[in-house]
Amino acid sequence: MTSIDRSLAASGPTRADIRARQAAKPPRRRLSWGDPFTRGLIYQAGLAILLALGIHALYSNVSENLQRQNIATGFSFLEQLARFNIGESPIPYSASDTYGRALLVGVLNTLRVAAVAIVFATVLGVAAGVARASRNVVISTLAGTYVELARNVPIILHVLLWSSIIRNLPPPRQAHDLLGIGFISNRGLTVPLPGFGTSGGTIMIALGVAVLSAFAAARLARRYGERTGRYVEPIVPALAVLVALPLLTWLVTGAQFTPDIPQRRGFGFTGGLTLSPEFFALAIGLTIYTGAFIAEIVRGGIQAVPKGQVEAARALGLHPFSIMTRIVLPQALRVIVPPLSSQFLSLTKNSSLGVIIGYPELVNIGNTVMNQTGQAMEMVTIMMLIYFTLSLITSLLMNFYNSRVALKGR
Amino acid sequence: MANTLQPLVSGRRNALDWWLRERVWPSPFHILLSFATLALVVPICVKIANWAIFDAVFVSTGPESCRDAVGACWAVIAEKHRVILFGLYPFDEQWRPTLAVAIYLITVIVTLTPRFWSLRLLVPLWTIAVFVIGALMYGGIGPLRIVPTTEWGGLALTMIMFSGTVILGFPIAVLLALGRRSHLALLRSVSVVLIETLRGVPLITILFVAVNVFPLFLPAGTNVDKLLRVTIGIAIFFACYQAETIRGGLQAVPEGQYEAAKALGLRYWQMTGRIILPQALRIAFPAIMNHVIAAMKNTSFVMIIGLFDILTATTAVMQDPVWRKYYVEAYTFAGFVYFAFGFALSIYARLMERRMNKGYVS
Amino acid sequence: MRFAFGFAGAIAALLCTAILPAEAGQGDTLKAIRERGEVLCGAHPGRYGFAAPDDKGRWSGFEVDLCRALGAAIFGSGEKVRFVALSSQQRFPAIQAGEVDVLARNTTATLTRDTALGLNFSPPVFYTGLGFMVRKDAGVKTVEDLNGATICMAPGSTTEQAVARLFTQHGLKYTPIVIENNKELASAYVAGRCDALAKDRDALPGVRMYDAPQPEEHVILEGTFSKEPLALAVRHGDDQWYDIVKWVMYGLMEAEENKVSQANVDEMTKSKDPYVQDLLGVTGDYGPKLGLDKKWLYWVVKSVGNYGDIYERHFGDKTKLPLPRGHNKLWTEGGLLYGLPVK
């Protein structure tokens, strides 16, 4: 979807709309076919009757079919025991939990892979988009090749290809060693988890405080710049706070360092954090595919910034990096954010492709539940409702962010 | 490339000079960047070229053809091309889908040629093409034996689903877009609910509805072909996205056009069909083409519900333990087919966009 | 615009032709099958010995022959059957929606499926149970050795539940990888994504032979770990069709028990045994009670043979992968097959 049509779609009813609505109300109303108002009423009544008949027909067909074949209905199956296991779950789950909890695991797995892929796709997309808009012909050609190759191939193919590649990596016994602390094999990527002994909790609190203080520091820097005229990149003090505070805490609490380094054992590895091949394949596939679309959006946004802005900044002697971060990107964001949100949404929806490679996300689990209970209608409804809710929440968040970056009258 | 300045001095030499100066080495930093990138990319490109072309095996001489190959084993495609193109369609009858695909391609080329853009030509053409292709594929007429849709497959199936999606979906999209802008409150809300709901859910769930749930909606004693149910499902999904782009186009038509049409005493359908829609579709053309390309890629989702499209057919290559190793080749080939169609369509879209915008200010 | 409406009409007409009448109530299935001229049989897309199409698209296998037996009982020919390949996920919606008349697709008969899924099961036609295949070099000998293993299995199968139960009983841990597409599943195991492949035990030799590049590197674990009685399924609501499916299956068993085989069926019509005469429709009116021809079972045995013939053809000693009959022997020989009397 291009930025143009998005912005068109986003703008509310135009004057033509309103005019058309006003035109539909003539001064005098007569009960005749020639009168647009009456005609409208008749059309609507017709539509209402059709709708009611349609819904009634569907309902009676469904209930008759279900009754005749004696197929179970209702949502009570959600409380039955699932009796099947799930490969990876962010929350405790076992075969003696309910179908409802199994579905919750599915939702969380969907969110997990979507969140990771959104972050990486955004990074990749912004980089490729900036590269594609670059003056440097080597860089822009390279980025262009990536974008055209990635977005003209179905997402399902991306996911299948990565899944095959990872599955054909060597088995755990011959796993590729990553600097002696991690492994990559056909069981996925195993990385060490940092551990800080007994001070872990304190450091987490310090990190939380640091995040909040970083915002404050950035704000102070901006104020300082406005007051004194000496400009300080707000990111510099923010980063300093973000790094320094947890580091200090760590030193003060005794500089304990007890990382959890994975070891080969039994069928695989113990210790560390293992990202399953399915998670990995799905995340990479989604990142590369969506990244290409985001790149196009970013490029469109950058090119929508008037050339005069860049030229003026250059004339002022700003560093090219500052031109990009201070002049171009903030203005481009206004064009970028609305279509970007629709890309995030479609990424979340595309994560349902986990079902073909065996990643236990919502559709995969739903598929199993549907099969064990036979209640396809209820299960499909539940899946649709969940995705629809996720879409709504994402739209709301992005609308909120959009209102922050949108042009403010000063 | 908007951040570039147009050369002020004309002349070939100067243009080249400008291009080198502006695009290749605008600054020492860029020279460094270019060389670093090239140093990284060129070896990879050479490796890929060696793998894909120079060290590759193209001709199949049976399962042993690729035993000593260093590069790609395209022989797997040569060996399995029948399955990839036609899926499980009965082997002896495969001239039928071949002919059908040929007729289809000719029809599409005619449709994409602006010279033939007239409803008087295209509508009968497509009507005939749809019936001929349907008769060829399904059979049951004259000496052609019936081949049920469960046996259709491969590239032929992908094309049928894709064109089915566009042919069925586009009129629905136009109606939904008009419905959403209608002054009839009920019609408007029905359109909004349909569009927003379906845009909020993944295509897979719609396919699940088409395959698992829809049969329950039918009165006892009727049944709709699965391929048709699935195609309608993808078409409605396509229509909901397309409706939004068309609505964007409708909103961009200057209101003077509406007023002028009304002043001439045109009725709603006359105004919409002859004045507003042609302009709206022209404005929204690039976005419309984007969704058409997306629709082609979306047909690949039928793999999940067990239809044998080109992607499923290609993965079926891996069913054969002898050829299982060559999954990268098989996926590359399938990817290339989608890429070729998608890229061709997007180039076509760009050309048409330029052509259509001739004589317009915007 | 007029043309556009014409086109829409043409398309609509085309769509209408695709809406086929399906069967619903009592006796409608048989009527629909007769009108159509063939039985629609939901089959496994490819399980060695049970069902698979060859290069030319002709289906063969144990379950395929059971469907052909139904075709023979109705039309007198085992060729009047069309097979629809169904994944484990699609099989129940397909039978519920009437896309197929009968499901002969490695389906375990369970209470939930019999009730909540709206199905009726024929008598079990194949007794099997959960089995595991592992790589030889993993050194796995018993289920206990599988502790901590990653196990590949198909979704929506009874396998998923059986594995969960088995490992809970033994207090063991495992990670399931659930992949629907059969070939994706096999290739995930072969590529080493999983330590073990869990499937019906009798399906594993086929996977080892045809999906693994080096079959000798894989072993099938000793033992059967669950009860999986495979049966044919029809949908609720048509008792006559259910009766036909049920009694054709019993008929196959009764034919074997009474030594009526494909080879001797014509001679056996001259048999003095009144029960054999009844079976083959020389005397008695059992076919018409089912709504079939009097010689229904004669045609079945003539076309596909008795149960033993079918088993020999696909799992017998002369096949590439013989399977011992085990529980699938007649009750008279110590097995579980017990045909009810055709009387």
TrEMBL record, chain C:
SUPFAM superfamilies for this protein: Periplasmic binding protein-like II
Keyword Signal: yes
Residues making up the signal peptide according to the UniProt record: 1-24
Gene Ontology terms describing biological process: amino acid transport
Key word Cytoplasm present: no
Annotated Solute-binding protein family 3/N-terminal domain residues: 38-268
One Pfam family in the UniProt entry: SBP_bac_3
SMART domains found in the cross-reference section: PBPb
Bilayer-crossing regions: none
Keywords: Signal, Transport
Family stated for the protein in its record: Belongs to the bacterial solute-binding protein 3 family.
Protein name (record): Amino acid ABC transporter substrate-binding protein
Organism: Bosea spartocytisi
